[in-house]
Amino acid sequence: MIQFFLKLTETLFPGYFAFVMATGALSISSSFLGFERAATVLLYFNIAAYAVLLIMTILRVILYPKRIIQDLSSHAIGSGFFTAAAGTCVLGSQLIIVADSYISAFYLWCFALFLWVLIMYSFFTLVIVQRDTPALSEGINGAWLIAAVATQAVSILGTLLIPAVGSGREIILFTAVCFYFLGCMLYLNIITLIFYRFTFLKMDSSAFTPPYWINMGAVAITSLAGATLIQHAESWSFLTEITPFLKGFTLFFWAAGTWWIPLLFILAFWRHIIKRHPVTYEPALWAMVFPLAMYTASTWELAIALEIPFLQAIPRVMFYIASIAWCIVFIGFVHHLYIRTAVYYRLTKMKNRA
Predict the structure, then answer these.
(1) Three-state SS letters, the chain
(2) Contact 304, 231 (CB under 8 A)
(3) How far apart are CA 160 and CA 108, in angstroms?
(4) How far apart are the first and last CA of the chain?
(5) How far is CA 133 from the centre of its chain?
(6) What sign has the CA pseudo-torsion 163, 164, 169, 171?
(7) Binning pLDDT at 50, 70 and 90, where does residue 44 land?
(8) Tens of pLDDT, residues 273-332
(9) Euclidean distance between CA atoms 329 and 21, whole angstroms
(10) What separation in angstroms does the CA of 208 have from each of 126, 163, 240, 242, 313?
């Protein structure tokens, strides 16, 4: 059993914390829409999932450091490590919104800041200094936008902590505002490359992987970060002064995220129905579930922040789409884990007999 766990640890997908992100976003959406019991169940489930993934990641760093460096320096999967910082913040936000737990959320925010700095500068340094870099069509994918997602997640959690903060409130809000704008900058830079890759470079069905849904998820969480700042504007005079700009900028990103949704569904139809690309479980599928749940939460909060109540009709529908997607991918995850466990023990028995 220990050997099997270590094998899973060694081959752990760098972006597996997207599972925590998707579950946390769905829990937060459940709370916003009044499904408190579902939100609470998902909270406890997410705490357990986060603990397991954190333990596996720490063991991976200790036992397999070369594998960590190899993955982190990869253009294709290295950006997946940003899910650790994003997942930490989403769990912290979940604790505040669902359980009203500020102390645990504060420690998670501090830990997320540490992870953000470590991963941000390690990943970009490693991919920049490489001698041999891949072509744009092979090196860029939607997972790069998780850098923007993690940045906005830090902003959101920092802003949510404000009601429980006495001294240092302005410092935290200043940090949250800076991270919000930094996340906007990262999104605009990276999405330009992705859009160029979509429209001017050859793309077959196998290349349209689930992380491209982060094209929408990144602007969804940006919208939520902006809406959260707007709702806490009274906590700092400077934030009140720039609120009109925040409202316009936040609506701009929400509109961009909304534009992506039909196109992503059309491309998914093209991939799986027209091109008949098989639908199988892969860890990157959680990068598809997260945007759906995050768009639900962000639209709900945007409607409140901008005082546009008719927008709340959208998350009432999107919530069920996100919930169905989460359930389907989770069933796939359980089946995948069962098959992998069965195959491992079968091979172990064959080796012992030999």
Answers:
(1) CHHHHHHHHHCCCCCCCHHHHHHHHHHHHHHHCCCHHHHHHHHHHHHHHHHHHHHHHHHHHHHCHHHHHHHHCCCCCHHHHHHHHHHHHHHHHHHHHHHCCHHHHHHHHHHHHHHHHHHHHHHHHHHHCCCCCCCHHHHCCHHHHHHHHHHHHHHHHHHHCHHHCCCCHHHHHHHHHHHHHHHHHHHHHHHHHHHHHHHHCCCCHHHCCHHHHHHHHHHHHHHHHHHHHHHCHHHCHHHHHCHHHHHHHHHHHHHHHHHHHHHHHHHHHHHHHHCCCCCCCCHHHHHHHHHHHHHHHHHHHHHHHCCCHHHHHHHHHHHHHHHHHHHHHHHHHHHHHHHHHHHHHHHHHHHHHC
(2) yes
(3) 12
(4) 20
(5) 26
(6) negative
(7) very high
(8) 999 999 899 999 999 999 999 999 999 999 999 999 999 999 999 999 999 999 999 999
(9) 14
(10) 25, 42, 42, 38, 30
How many angstroms separate the CA atoms of 39 and 332, rounded? 22
Q: Which of 176, 267, 162, 166 is nearest to 216 (CA)?
A: 267
Amino acid at residue number 60: R
Q: How confident is the model over 104-159, as pLDDT tens digits?
A: 999 999 999 999 999 999 999 999 998 888 989 889 999 999 999 999 999 999 99
- In the block, tokens 């959208």 appear at 314
The C-alpha atoms of residue 78 and residue 287 are separated, in whole angstroms, by 14
Q: How many residues does the chain have?
A: 354
Taking alpha carbons only, the member of 57, 98, 114 closest to residue 80 is: 57
Token pair listed for 20? 């925590």
pLDDT at 18: 97
How far apart CA 115 and CA 54 sit, in angstroms, is 12
Structure tokens at 177: 């505002």
Nearest to 211 by CA among 127, 119, 285: 285
